[in-house]
Amino acid sequence: MDETLDAIIVGGGMVGAAVAAALGQAGMSVALVEGGGPPAAIPDDAPFDLRVSSLNLASQRLLEEVGAWSYIPAARRCPFLHIEASDAAEKRHIRFNAAELELPGFGHFVENRVIRRALWQRLAELPGVTTICHAGPVAWVPGGHRSLLELDDGRMLAARLVVGADGAASHTRELAGIATRDEDYGQRALIINVRTRLPQQDVSWQRFTPAGPQAMLPLPGQHASLVWYDSAEATLAREALDDDTLRRAIEHDFPARLGGVEAVLGRASFPIRRRHAERYVRPRLALVGDAAHVIHPLAGQGLNLGLQDAEALSRRVIAAFRAGQDPGSRAVLAGYARERRPQTLAMIAAMETFHHVFTGAAPLRFAGAAGLALAERLEGAKRQVMRHALGLQR
Ligand SMILES: Cc1cc2nc3c(=O)[nH]c(=O)nc-3n(C[C@H](O)[C@H](O)[C@H](O)COP(=O)(O)OP(=O)(O)OC[C@H]3O[C@@H](n4cnc5c(N)ncnc54)[C@H](O)[C@@H]3O)c2cc1C
Protein backbone atom coordinates (compact mmCIF):
# COMPACT_ATOMS: atom_id res chain seq x y z
CA MET A 1 0.00 0.00 0.00
CA ASP A 2 3.09 2.20 0.06
CA GLU A 3 2.47 3.00 -3.57
CA THR A 4 0.14 5.88 -4.36
CA LEU A 5 -1.54 5.27 -7.69
CA ASP A 6 -2.71 8.07 -9.92
CA ALA A 7 -6.28 6.71 -9.97
CA ILE A 8 -8.49 3.88 -8.77
CA ILE A 9 -11.58 3.26 -10.87
CA VAL A 10 -14.36 1.29 -9.17
CA GLY A 11 -16.50 -0.53 -11.75
CA GLY A 12 -15.26 -2.03 -14.99
CA GLY A 13 -18.45 -1.46 -17.01
CA MET A 14 -18.33 0.49 -20.25
CA VAL A 15 -17.85 3.89 -18.60
CA GLY A 16 -15.29 2.84 -15.95
CA ALA A 17 -13.27 0.89 -18.51
CA ALA A 18 -13.28 3.93 -20.82
CA VAL A 19 -11.85 6.16 -18.05
CA ALA A 20 -9.22 3.51 -17.22
CA ALA A 21 -8.23 3.22 -20.89
CA ALA A 22 -7.92 7.00 -21.32
CA LEU A 23 -5.80 7.47 -18.19
CA GLY A 24 -3.73 4.33 -18.82
CA GLN A 25 -3.02 5.43 -22.37
CA ALA A 26 -1.76 8.78 -21.04
CA GLY A 27 0.83 6.89 -18.96
CA MET A 28 -0.95 7.14 -15.60
CA SER A 29 -0.93 4.32 -13.01
CA VAL A 30 -4.46 2.99 -12.62
CA ALA A 31 -6.20 0.17 -10.71
CA LEU A 32 -9.58 -0.92 -12.08
CA VAL A 33 -11.64 -2.69 -9.39
CA GLU A 34 -14.50 -4.78 -10.80
CA GLY A 35 -17.08 -6.70 -8.77
CA GLY A 36 -17.59 -9.33 -11.48
CA GLY A 37 -15.16 -11.09 -13.79
CA PRO A 38 -13.47 -9.93 -16.98
CA PRO A 39 -15.74 -9.90 -20.05
CA ALA A 40 -15.75 -13.12 -22.06
CA ALA A 41 -14.87 -13.38 -25.77
CA ILE A 42 -17.91 -13.20 -28.09
CA PRO A 43 -17.81 -15.28 -31.29
CA ASP A 44 -18.88 -13.32 -34.40
CA ASP A 45 -21.85 -15.66 -34.92
CA ALA A 46 -23.08 -15.69 -31.29
CA PRO A 47 -26.78 -14.77 -30.80
CA PHE A 48 -27.30 -11.07 -30.03
CA ASP A 49 -27.54 -10.15 -26.37
CA LEU A 50 -30.53 -8.16 -25.10
CA ARG A 51 -28.56 -5.21 -23.76
CA VAL A 52 -27.84 -3.02 -26.78
CA SER A 53 -26.86 0.67 -26.89
CA SER A 54 -26.79 3.33 -29.54
CA LEU A 55 -23.31 4.80 -29.65
CA ASN A 56 -23.45 8.35 -30.98
CA LEU A 57 -20.61 9.99 -32.90
CA ALA A 58 -19.04 11.52 -29.80
CA SER A 59 -19.00 8.11 -28.09
CA GLN A 60 -17.51 6.50 -31.18
CA ARG A 61 -14.83 9.20 -31.27
CA LEU A 62 -13.97 8.53 -27.61
CA LEU A 63 -13.73 4.78 -28.22
CA GLU A 64 -11.46 5.48 -31.19
CA GLU A 65 -9.28 7.83 -29.15
CA VAL A 66 -8.76 5.28 -26.38
CA GLY A 67 -7.96 2.55 -28.92
CA ALA A 68 -11.02 0.34 -28.31
CA TRP A 69 -13.14 0.95 -31.43
CA SER A 70 -11.04 -1.35 -33.62
CA TYR A 71 -11.87 -4.24 -31.26
CA ILE A 72 -15.59 -3.94 -32.09
CA PRO A 73 -16.01 -6.37 -35.01
CA ALA A 74 -18.01 -5.09 -37.99
CA ALA A 75 -20.19 -8.22 -37.67
CA ARG A 76 -21.39 -7.02 -34.25
CA ARG A 77 -22.24 -3.39 -35.02
CA CYS A 78 -25.04 -1.88 -37.06
CA PRO A 79 -24.65 1.66 -38.44
CA PHE A 80 -27.74 3.83 -38.80
CA LEU A 81 -28.24 6.73 -41.19
CA HIS A 82 -31.79 7.79 -40.40
CA ILE A 83 -33.79 8.46 -37.23
CA GLU A 84 -37.57 8.77 -37.30
CA ALA A 85 -40.27 9.53 -34.76
CA SER A 86 -44.02 9.45 -35.27
CA ASP A 87 -47.24 9.81 -33.34
CA ALA A 88 -49.48 6.81 -32.55
CA ALA A 89 -51.48 7.08 -35.78
CA GLU A 90 -48.26 7.61 -37.77
CA LYS A 91 -49.82 10.68 -39.34
CA ARG A 92 -47.06 12.97 -38.18
CA HIS A 93 -43.44 12.11 -38.73
CA ILE A 94 -40.11 13.66 -38.11
CA ARG A 95 -37.18 12.25 -40.02
CA PHE A 96 -33.50 13.03 -39.62
CA ASN A 97 -31.11 12.04 -42.40
CA ALA A 98 -27.40 11.94 -41.70
CA ALA A 99 -26.60 12.99 -45.26
CA GLU A 100 -28.76 16.14 -44.94
CA LEU A 101 -26.73 17.10 -41.89
CA GLU A 102 -23.51 16.29 -43.76
CA LEU A 103 -22.67 13.49 -41.37
CA PRO A 104 -21.35 10.04 -42.30
CA GLY A 105 -24.05 8.47 -40.10
CA PHE A 106 -25.68 8.93 -36.70
CA GLY A 107 -23.82 6.16 -34.93
CA HIS A 108 -24.01 2.43 -34.35
CA PHE A 109 -26.06 -0.01 -32.36
CA VAL A 110 -23.76 -2.37 -30.47
CA GLU A 111 -24.33 -4.86 -27.66
CA ASN A 112 -23.12 -3.57 -24.29
CA ARG A 113 -21.03 -6.69 -23.74
CA VAL A 114 -19.22 -6.14 -27.07
CA ILE A 115 -18.34 -2.54 -26.13
CA ARG A 116 -17.15 -3.65 -22.72
CA ARG A 117 -15.09 -6.50 -24.14
CA ALA A 118 -13.42 -4.14 -26.65
CA LEU A 119 -12.44 -1.75 -23.86
CA TRP A 120 -11.00 -4.54 -21.73
CA GLN A 121 -8.99 -5.82 -24.70
CA ARG A 122 -7.48 -2.36 -24.95
CA LEU A 123 -6.80 -2.27 -21.19
CA ALA A 124 -4.77 -5.48 -21.49
CA GLU A 125 -2.34 -3.57 -23.75
CA LEU A 126 -1.74 -0.77 -21.24
CA PRO A 127 1.10 -1.51 -18.79
CA GLY A 128 -0.02 1.15 -16.31
CA VAL A 129 -3.47 -0.43 -15.79
CA THR A 130 -4.00 -3.25 -13.26
CA THR A 131 -7.40 -4.95 -13.19
CA ILE A 132 -8.63 -6.39 -9.90
CA CYS A 133 -11.71 -8.60 -10.42
CA HIS A 134 -14.27 -10.04 -7.99
CA ALA A 135 -13.59 -7.22 -5.54
CA GLY A 136 -15.34 -4.09 -4.34
CA PRO A 137 -14.74 -1.27 -1.88
CA VAL A 138 -15.81 -1.46 1.77
CA ALA A 139 -14.37 1.84 3.01
CA TRP A 140 -13.17 5.11 1.54
CA VAL A 141 -10.95 7.51 3.48
CA PRO A 142 -10.30 10.89 1.84
CA GLY A 143 -7.03 12.61 2.65
CA GLY A 144 -5.08 15.73 1.79
CA HIS A 145 -2.80 14.14 -0.78
CA ARG A 146 -4.48 10.83 -1.50
CA SER A 147 -7.65 8.79 -0.98
CA LEU A 148 -7.53 5.35 0.66
CA LEU A 149 -9.83 2.59 -0.51
CA GLU A 150 -10.25 -0.65 1.42
CA LEU A 151 -11.44 -3.63 -0.64
CA ASP A 152 -13.55 -6.55 0.52
CA ASP A 153 -10.61 -8.93 -0.08
CA GLY A 154 -8.68 -7.05 2.64
CA ARG A 155 -6.47 -5.08 0.25
CA MET A 156 -5.89 -1.38 0.86
CA LEU A 157 -5.25 0.88 -2.13
CA ALA A 158 -4.19 4.51 -2.24
CA ALA A 159 -4.58 6.96 -5.11
CA ARG A 160 -4.71 10.65 -5.86
CA LEU A 161 -8.16 10.12 -7.35
CA VAL A 162 -10.98 7.57 -6.87
CA VAL A 163 -13.54 7.32 -9.67
CA GLY A 164 -16.93 5.74 -8.88
CA ALA A 165 -18.12 4.01 -12.07
CA ASP A 166 -20.00 1.22 -10.35
CA GLY A 167 -23.41 1.80 -11.91
CA ALA A 168 -26.85 2.89 -10.72
CA ALA A 169 -26.54 1.23 -7.28
CA SER A 170 -23.02 2.64 -6.80
CA HIS A 171 -21.47 1.59 -3.49
CA THR A 172 -18.71 4.16 -4.03
CA ARG A 173 -21.36 6.88 -4.08
CA GLU A 174 -22.77 5.53 -0.82
CA LEU A 175 -19.32 5.36 0.83
CA ALA A 176 -18.77 8.98 -0.20
CA GLY A 177 -22.07 9.96 1.45
CA ILE A 178 -23.57 11.33 -1.77
CA ALA A 179 -27.38 11.23 -1.80
CA THR A 180 -29.52 10.83 -4.94
CA ARG A 181 -32.84 12.19 -6.15
CA ASP A 182 -34.95 9.36 -7.52
CA GLU A 183 -38.16 9.10 -9.48
CA ASP A 184 -40.00 5.99 -10.62
CA TYR A 185 -41.91 6.62 -13.87
CA GLY A 186 -44.28 3.72 -13.13
CA GLN A 187 -43.39 2.16 -16.48
CA ARG A 188 -41.33 -0.79 -17.67
CA ALA A 189 -39.49 -1.32 -20.93
CA LEU A 190 -39.73 -4.73 -22.56
CA ILE A 191 -36.65 -5.39 -24.72
CA ILE A 192 -37.26 -8.04 -27.38
CA ASN A 193 -34.67 -9.37 -29.80
CA VAL A 194 -36.30 -10.51 -33.03
CA ARG A 195 -35.44 -11.87 -36.44
CA THR A 196 -37.13 -9.61 -38.96
CA ARG A 197 -38.58 -10.49 -42.34
CA LEU A 198 -36.96 -7.35 -43.78
CA PRO A 199 -33.21 -7.30 -44.47
CA GLN A 200 -30.82 -5.30 -42.27
CA GLN A 201 -32.04 -1.74 -41.82
CA ASP A 202 -30.21 1.57 -41.50
CA VAL A 203 -33.03 3.45 -39.77
CA SER A 204 -33.98 3.57 -36.11
CA TRP A 205 -37.55 4.62 -35.40
CA GLN A 206 -39.76 5.33 -32.48
CA ARG A 207 -43.55 5.60 -32.34
CA PHE A 208 -45.13 7.46 -29.44
CA THR A 209 -48.37 5.89 -28.23
CA PRO A 210 -50.48 6.94 -25.24
CA ALA A 211 -49.23 3.85 -23.33
CA GLY A 212 -45.59 4.69 -24.06
CA PRO A 213 -43.09 4.62 -26.94
CA GLN A 214 -42.33 1.65 -29.20
CA ALA A 215 -38.89 1.60 -30.75
CA MET A 216 -36.93 -0.37 -33.33
CA LEU A 217 -33.16 -0.50 -33.05
CA PRO A 218 -31.60 -2.28 -36.06
CA LEU A 219 -28.97 -4.97 -35.48
CA PRO A 220 -26.72 -6.67 -38.04
CA GLY A 221 -28.40 -8.98 -40.55
CA GLN A 222 -32.12 -9.62 -40.22
CA HIS A 223 -32.11 -8.70 -36.56
CA ALA A 224 -33.57 -5.93 -34.45
CA SER A 225 -33.96 -4.98 -30.83
CA LEU A 226 -37.50 -3.80 -30.11
CA VAL A 227 -38.28 -1.68 -27.07
CA TRP A 228 -41.88 -1.62 -25.88
CA TYR A 229 -42.74 0.75 -23.04
CA ASP A 230 -45.94 0.30 -21.08
CA SER A 231 -47.30 0.11 -17.54
CA ALA A 232 -45.53 -2.39 -15.28
CA GLU A 233 -48.61 -4.61 -15.27
CA ALA A 234 -49.02 -4.77 -19.07
CA THR A 235 -45.29 -5.27 -19.62
CA LEU A 236 -44.97 -8.13 -17.14
CA ALA A 237 -48.00 -9.85 -18.72
CA ARG A 238 -46.42 -9.52 -22.19
CA GLU A 239 -43.05 -10.69 -20.95
CA ALA A 240 -44.69 -13.94 -19.75
CA LEU A 241 -46.14 -14.79 -23.20
CA ASP A 242 -44.66 -17.72 -25.14
CA ASP A 243 -42.46 -16.79 -28.11
CA ASP A 244 -45.08 -17.23 -30.80
CA THR A 245 -47.85 -15.38 -28.91
CA LEU A 246 -45.44 -12.53 -28.25
CA ARG A 247 -44.43 -12.52 -31.93
CA ARG A 248 -48.10 -12.17 -32.93
CA ALA A 249 -48.66 -9.42 -30.32
CA ILE A 250 -45.73 -7.47 -31.82
CA GLU A 251 -47.09 -7.86 -35.35
CA HIS A 252 -50.50 -6.69 -34.13
CA ASP A 253 -49.40 -3.70 -32.02
CA PHE A 254 -46.20 -2.46 -33.66
CA PRO A 255 -46.44 -0.27 -36.78
CA ALA A 256 -46.77 -2.16 -40.07
CA ARG A 257 -43.45 -0.70 -41.19
CA LEU A 258 -41.71 -3.26 -38.97
CA GLY A 259 -42.49 -5.59 -41.85
CA GLY A 260 -43.19 -8.75 -39.90
CA VAL A 261 -41.29 -10.77 -37.35
CA GLU A 262 -39.97 -14.24 -38.17
CA ALA A 263 -39.06 -15.18 -34.62
CA VAL A 264 -38.74 -13.84 -31.09
CA LEU A 265 -35.20 -14.64 -29.93
CA GLY A 266 -35.18 -13.27 -26.38
CA ARG A 267 -36.85 -10.79 -24.04
CA ALA A 268 -36.33 -9.05 -20.69
CA SER A 269 -37.93 -6.08 -18.99
CA PHE A 270 -36.58 -3.20 -16.91
CA PRO A 271 -38.27 -0.66 -14.63
CA ILE A 272 -37.95 2.93 -15.86
CA ARG A 273 -36.41 5.14 -13.22
CA ARG A 274 -34.53 8.36 -12.95
CA ARG A 275 -31.73 8.83 -10.45
CA HIS A 276 -29.43 11.80 -10.11
CA ALA A 277 -26.57 12.17 -7.63
CA GLU A 278 -26.79 15.42 -5.66
CA ARG A 279 -23.11 16.00 -6.35
CA TYR A 280 -20.61 14.43 -8.71
CA VAL A 281 -17.46 15.06 -6.70
CA ARG A 282 -16.04 14.90 -3.19
CA PRO A 283 -12.41 15.50 -2.22
CA ARG A 284 -10.33 13.18 -4.43
CA LEU A 285 -13.42 11.35 -5.68
CA ALA A 286 -15.60 11.70 -8.79
CA LEU A 287 -18.67 9.84 -10.03
CA VAL A 288 -19.20 8.98 -13.70
CA GLY A 289 -21.86 7.18 -15.76
CA ASP A 290 -24.85 5.57 -14.10
CA ALA A 291 -23.24 6.10 -10.68
CA ALA A 292 -23.88 9.82 -11.28
CA HIS A 293 -27.13 9.68 -13.30
CA VAL A 294 -29.72 7.26 -14.62
CA ILE A 295 -32.03 8.82 -17.20
CA HIS A 296 -35.16 7.68 -19.04
CA PRO A 297 -33.86 5.34 -21.77
CA LEU A 298 -36.35 6.52 -24.42
CA ALA A 299 -33.78 8.47 -26.41
CA GLY A 300 -31.02 5.90 -25.82
CA GLN A 301 -28.67 8.50 -24.35
CA GLY A 302 -27.71 6.96 -20.95
CA LEU A 303 -24.46 5.39 -22.04
CA ASN A 304 -23.63 8.31 -24.33
CA LEU A 305 -23.92 10.68 -21.35
CA GLY A 306 -21.72 8.36 -19.30
CA LEU A 307 -19.06 8.21 -22.00
CA GLN A 308 -19.13 12.01 -22.21
CA ASP A 309 -18.45 12.05 -18.43
CA ALA A 310 -15.52 9.71 -19.08
CA GLU A 311 -14.21 12.02 -21.78
CA ALA A 312 -14.60 15.20 -19.71
CA LEU A 313 -13.05 13.77 -16.55
CA SER A 314 -10.12 12.10 -18.28
CA ARG A 315 -9.42 15.20 -20.42
CA ARG A 316 -9.09 17.35 -17.26
CA VAL A 317 -7.20 14.77 -15.21
CA ILE A 318 -4.72 14.06 -18.02
CA ALA A 319 -4.13 17.78 -18.62
CA ALA A 320 -3.20 18.24 -14.93
CA PHE A 321 -1.02 15.10 -14.97
CA ARG A 322 0.85 16.27 -18.08
CA ALA A 323 1.38 19.72 -16.58
CA GLY A 324 2.96 18.12 -13.50
CA GLN A 325 0.00 19.15 -11.37
CA ASP A 326 -2.19 17.11 -9.01
CA PRO A 327 -4.70 15.16 -11.17
CA GLY A 328 -7.11 14.69 -8.23
CA SER A 329 -7.11 18.30 -7.05
CA ARG A 330 -10.20 20.18 -6.02
CA ALA A 331 -9.86 22.48 -9.06
CA VAL A 332 -9.75 19.57 -11.53
CA LEU A 333 -12.79 17.89 -9.99
CA ALA A 334 -14.79 21.09 -9.60
CA GLY A 335 -14.18 21.81 -13.30
CA TYR A 336 -15.45 18.36 -14.20
CA ALA A 337 -18.64 18.77 -12.15
CA ARG A 338 -19.24 22.25 -13.56
CA GLU A 339 -18.94 20.91 -17.09
CA ARG A 340 -21.06 17.78 -16.73
CA ARG A 341 -23.91 18.55 -14.31
CA PRO A 342 -25.62 21.13 -16.54
CA GLN A 343 -25.35 18.75 -19.52
CA THR A 344 -27.04 15.99 -17.56
CA LEU A 345 -29.70 18.33 -16.20
CA ALA A 346 -30.48 19.47 -19.75
CA MET A 347 -30.80 15.86 -20.89
CA ILE A 348 -33.03 14.98 -17.90
CA ALA A 349 -35.26 17.97 -18.70
CA ALA A 350 -35.51 16.92 -22.36
CA MET A 351 -36.44 13.34 -21.35
CA GLU A 352 -39.05 14.66 -18.88
CA THR A 353 -40.63 16.73 -21.62
CA PHE A 354 -40.70 13.80 -24.03
CA HIS A 355 -42.14 11.48 -21.41
CA HIS A 356 -44.86 13.84 -20.21
CA VAL A 357 -45.75 15.25 -23.60
CA PHE A 358 -46.12 11.89 -25.28
CA THR A 359 -47.52 9.75 -22.47
CA GLY A 360 -49.23 12.45 -20.40
CA ALA A 361 -52.67 14.02 -20.58
CA ALA A 362 -54.50 14.22 -23.93
CA PRO A 363 -53.91 17.97 -24.59
CA LEU A 364 -50.22 17.44 -23.97
CA ARG A 365 -50.21 14.48 -26.32
CA PHE A 366 -51.75 16.66 -28.96
CA ALA A 367 -49.00 19.19 -28.28
CA GLY A 368 -46.51 16.38 -28.80
CA ALA A 369 -47.88 15.47 -32.20
CA ALA A 370 -48.08 19.13 -33.20
CA GLY A 371 -44.53 19.56 -31.90
CA LEU A 372 -43.34 16.80 -34.21
CA ALA A 373 -44.90 18.50 -37.21
CA LEU A 374 -43.48 21.88 -36.19
CA ALA A 375 -40.01 20.50 -35.53
CA GLU A 376 -40.08 18.88 -38.98
CA ARG A 377 -40.60 22.34 -40.50
CA LEU A 378 -38.03 24.13 -38.39
CA GLU A 379 -34.83 23.03 -40.01
CA GLY A 380 -32.64 25.10 -37.67
CA ALA A 381 -34.27 23.64 -34.57
CA LYS A 382 -34.00 20.17 -36.02
CA ARG A 383 -30.29 20.58 -36.55
CA GLN A 384 -29.81 21.84 -33.01
CA VAL A 385 -31.73 18.93 -31.50
CA MET A 386 -29.73 16.52 -33.56
CA ARG A 387 -26.34 17.97 -32.78
CA HIS A 388 -27.23 17.76 -29.08
CA ALA A 389 -28.36 14.14 -29.38
CA LEU A 390 -25.17 13.26 -31.23
CA GLY A 391 -23.04 14.71 -28.46
CA LEU A 392 -21.48 17.27 -30.82
CA GLN A 393 -22.55 20.23 -28.67
CA ARG A 394 -19.42 21.15 -26.86
C1 LIG B 1 -33.83 -0.64 -20.87
C2 LIG B 1 -32.60 0.19 -21.05
C3 LIG B 1 -32.17 0.53 -22.33
C4 LIG B 1 -31.05 1.35 -22.50
N1 LIG B 1 -30.68 1.70 -23.77
C5 LIG B 1 -29.63 2.55 -23.96
C6 LIG B 1 -29.23 3.00 -25.28
O1 LIG B 1 -29.79 2.63 -26.30
N2 LIG B 1 -28.19 3.88 -25.36
C7 LIG B 1 -27.52 4.33 -24.27
O2 LIG B 1 -26.61 5.17 -24.41
N3 LIG B 1 -27.85 3.91 -23.01
C8 LIG B 1 -28.89 3.03 -22.84
N4 LIG B 1 -29.22 2.62 -21.57
C9 LIG B 1 -28.40 3.05 -20.44
C10 LIG B 1 -27.07 2.29 -20.37
O3 LIG B 1 -27.29 0.91 -20.36
C11 LIG B 1 -26.34 2.70 -19.08
O4 LIG B 1 -26.31 4.10 -19.01
C12 LIG B 1 -24.90 2.17 -19.07
O5 LIG B 1 -24.90 0.75 -19.03
C13 LIG B 1 -24.14 2.69 -17.87
O6 LIG B 1 -22.81 2.23 -17.88
P1 LIG B 1 -21.93 2.29 -16.56
O7 LIG B 1 -20.59 1.73 -16.98
O8 LIG B 1 -22.01 3.62 -15.94
O9 LIG B 1 -22.67 1.31 -15.54
P2 LIG B 1 -22.88 -0.26 -15.60
O10 LIG B 1 -23.04 -0.73 -17.00
O11 LIG B 1 -23.96 -0.57 -14.62
O12 LIG B 1 -21.49 -0.86 -15.07
C14 LIG B 1 -21.14 -0.85 -13.69
C15 LIG B 1 -19.98 -1.82 -13.47
O13 LIG B 1 -19.59 -1.73 -12.10
C16 LIG B 1 -19.52 -3.03 -11.53
N5 LIG B 1 -19.84 -2.90 -10.11
C17 LIG B 1 -21.06 -2.68 -9.55
N6 LIG B 1 -20.94 -2.57 -8.21
C18 LIG B 1 -19.62 -2.70 -7.93
C19 LIG B 1 -18.88 -2.67 -6.73
N7 LIG B 1 -19.47 -2.46 -5.51
N8 LIG B 1 -17.53 -2.85 -6.79
C20 LIG B 1 -16.92 -3.05 -7.99
N9 LIG B 1 -17.57 -3.08 -9.16
C21 LIG B 1 -18.91 -2.91 -9.13
C22 LIG B 1 -20.50 -3.88 -12.32
O14 LIG B 1 -20.16 -5.26 -12.25
C23 LIG B 1 -20.34 -3.29 -13.72
O15 LIG B 1 -19.29 -3.90 -14.44
C24 LIG B 1 -30.33 1.80 -21.37
C25 LIG B 1 -30.74 1.44 -20.08
C26 LIG B 1 -31.87 0.64 -19.91
C27 LIG B 1 -32.32 0.29 -18.52
TrEMBL record:
Gene Ontology cellular component annotations, sorted alphabetically: ubiquinone biosynthesis complex
Tagged with keyword Translocase: no
MF term (GO), any: FAD binding
PROSITE patterns attached to this UniProt entry: UBIH
Cofactor(s) annotated in UniProt: FAD
Residues of the signal peptide: none
Coiled-coil regions, chain positions: none
SUPFAM superfamilies assigned: FAD/NAD(P)-binding domain (SSF51905)
UniProt record, GO biological process: ubiquinone biosynthetic process
Domain named FAD-binding: residues: 5-347
Entry similarity comment: Belongs to the UbiH/COQ6 family.
Subunit structure: Component of the Ubi complex metabolon, which regroups five ubiquinone biosynthesis proteins (UbiE, UbiF, UbiG, UbiH and UbiI) and two accessory factors (UbiK and the lipid-binding protein UbiJ).
Protein name: Monooxygenase
Top-level taxonomy: Bacteria, Pseudomonadati, Pseudomonadota, Gammaproteobacteria, Oceanospirillales
